[in-house]
Design goal:
single chain, alpha+beta, 30% helix, flat
Length: 70
């Protein structure tokens, strides 16, 4: 999972053989909904943070560290 892929797209787009494809996605009532239709380009949605929060990863890390990190 990469939550910062959009930050390096300009550099990667110049490399021969690299193309970007993604599913259309929009958030409805705070949850992602996908069209399941592949389109050219990279998604601008940052689903990584949504998944980390949804799965309780920050709480797990906070418990392990004994402090609040996010």
């Amino acid at each position: 999972m990469s939550s910062h892929l959009v930050d390096i797209i300009p550099e990667l787009s110049e490399v021969d053989g690299i193309v970007f494809k993604c599913f259309d996605c929009s958030f409805v009532d705070g949850h992602p909904e996908f069209s399941y239709k592949i389109r050219d380009g990279a998604s601008n949605e940052r689903l990584g943070m949504y998944i980390l929060r949804k799965e309780g990863i920050f709480e797990i890390l906070n418990d392990a560290a004994g402090k609040k990190i996010a």
